[in-house]
Specification:
Blueprint: H1 3-19, H2 21-31, H3 36-49, H4 58-72, H5 77-91, H6 100-118, H7 128-141, H8 146-163, H9 187-206
Helix pairs in contact: 1-3, 1-9, 2-3, 2-9, 3-4, 4-5, 5-6, 6-7, 7-8, 7-9, 8-9
Bound molecules: adenosine-5'-diphosphate and magnesium ion.
Adenosine-5'-diphosphate (ADP) binds next to helix 3, helix 5, helix 6 and helix 9.
Length: 207
């Protein structure tokens, strides 16, 4: 994968979040404070504004994305998505070339960073419920190449997102609702699924 492919991924994520902004905000209105769609759309607009001229390497790209999300997205999701990207670059075996195993390792380091920062475990009804199965699915499909690994990851994320619906939230703002948080999909799990679907679509188009 080239730096351009990864830049295209981030642009596609911005476009997907913009398209789903109202839906993400509606999910957050049910178990949060109705700002997840606008938070993420604003942050990703700021990210995309920094991608022209394009960063010189995947490591530079991920650093720019992470720093921009930390500084522009409020709430819980800004620092968490920021951490995801800030941990990815240093986990790349080489700062320049990225293959399927390298991107999988970077994504895993990013998700482990989110877990370390937010202290959420699978089943707590957070973005981790989409991200954690996604990185496992990536590794399981990695021998089939980046597009197949990304598609498997996106499908696992979507299943994880849907599985948040009956859960009672144990982390984040939704946990204040206790049992009333059940019956709603977690907004961060929904946006994380968009992240992986954007990657799968971008890598399929690059093949
Ligand atoms: P806020 O809750 O501060 O308004 P957002 O609405 O932007 O922030 O994001 C909410 C999402 O953040 C939740 O749906 C959940 O997926 C995620 N989240 C919240 N707290 C945590 C945590 N401790 N670990 C992982 N994800 C979390
Ligand atoms: Mg919110």
């Amino acid at each position: 994968m080239s730096t351009d492919d990864l830049v295209a991924w981030i642009r596609a994520f911005r476009d997907a979040v913009t398209d789903h902004k109202d839906e993400l905000t509606r999910l957050d209105s049910e178990i949060g404070d109705a700002d997840h769609g606008s938070n993420m759309a604003r942050g990703l607009d700021a990210v995309v504004a920094k991608l022209d001229p394009a960063p010189a390497s995947p490591a530079e790209l991920f650093k720019t994305v992470g720093m921009t999300l930390v500084s522009t997205v409020g709430g819980a999701s800004g620092p968490l998505y920021g951490t995801l990207f800030l941990r990815m670059g240093p986990a790349l075996p080489s700062p320049d070339g990225v293959d399927t195993a390298a991107l999988g390792a970077a994504l895993r380091a990013g998700v482990e960073g989110v877990i370390a920062r937010g202290k959420a475990e699978p089943g707590d009804k957070t973005m981790i419920d989409a991200l954690s199965p996604a990185i496992d699915a990536w590794d399981a499909a990695a021998d089939d190449g980046p597009a197949a690994a990304a598609r498997a990851a996106a499908e696992a994320a979507a299943r994880g997102r849907d599985a948040t619906e009956p859960l009672v939230a144990r982390k984040g703002r939704a946990s204040y609702l206790g049992g009333r948080s059940a019956g709603h999909i977690d907004p961060g799990a929904a946006s994380s699924t968009l992240l992986l679907e954007a990657l799968a679509d971008t890598l399929a188009a690059a093949e």
